[in-house]
Amino acid sequence: MSHAKTHLRVVGALLVRETTTRFGSKPGGYVWALLDPSAHIFLLVSIFQAIAHSPALGTSFALFFATGYIAFQFYQAMSAYLNSAVRANRALLSYPGVAPIDTIVARCILQAGTTALVATIVLGTILTIARLHFSISWPPIFHAILNASLLGIGIGMMNNVLFVKFPAYEQIFNIVNRPLFLVSGVFFLVDSIPHPYQSVVLLNPLAHIIMIFRTGFYPEYRAIGADLEYLYLLSFLTFFVGMLIFTSYSAVLRKE
């Protein structure tokens, strides 16, 4: 019991440290966390409004792109922030009470809270300004967020080890991970892709996450091709493998 309390105190201290380091003590840091996704959504809206009469779904370009971008961010922001969790806190690992997993837990809590807050503000603002009145279905939204977070945490834990053991892998991962934004359905509907290309895109779990997330905002959207069972299988498998690799190399991470 005392061991668990020690880890809780360590995670709490790391959470305060990470918050201060990332956002600083001034409101400006928190504002940037909101401006970054807003700027991306505004850019997408500006481009596609100039070349299309209506969005692929619904009547609001802003809501369509926001639901895609924010669903994607629950994975992207989580994995990107966790990738360097151990490396950024290496000096603290010399203390016996601080374990590598504590750095992961602290960053995970901070990133999940940040993305959830940004999602609430951005989507709430869009719905208010556009005066869109419809009921939101929460179960698919929670399913999408949970799976995106599990994928991000699993990938992040793996990368903490693989980036250290195989330095070239970090560059390879960044090259492979970067195009995911373009092929996951952020600014288009996977349903509209012709076969057999649609089947290839649906191998990407992020495509399922975005499709399922959007069904929570668009009652008329059927998300043909989205497979919740496949998504849960892949996310839990990624999380399990990430946890296995991370815990197996915890001692190595302390010394590297």
Annotation keywords:
single chain; mainly alpha; 74% helix; globular
Q: Can you tell me about this structure?
A:
With 256 residues, this protein is mostly helical. The longest helix is centred in the middle third of the chain and has 30 residues, at 100-129. Helix 2 (27-51) packs across helix 3, helix 3 packs across helix 10 (205-215) and helix 6 (138-165) packs parallel to helix 11. It has helices at 2-23, 27-51, 61-82, 85-88, 100-129, 138-165, 167-177, 180-183, 197-201, 205-215, 228-248, 250-255. It has one domain. It is 74% helix and 0% strand.
Rg (C-alpha, Å): 19 Å
Number of domains: 1
Give the topology string: H per helix, E per strand.
Answer: HHHHHHHHHHHH
Structural class: mainly alpha
The total of beta strands comes to 0
Average per-residue pLDDT, rounded, comes to 91
Query: What is the quaternary state of this protein?
Result: single chain
Termini gap: 30 Å
Overall 3D geometry? globular
User: What is the makeup of the main sheet?
Assistant: none
- Individual helix count: 12
Return residue spans where pLDDT drops below 50 for at least 5 consecutive residues: none
Helix content, binned percent: over 70%
Portion in strands: under 5%
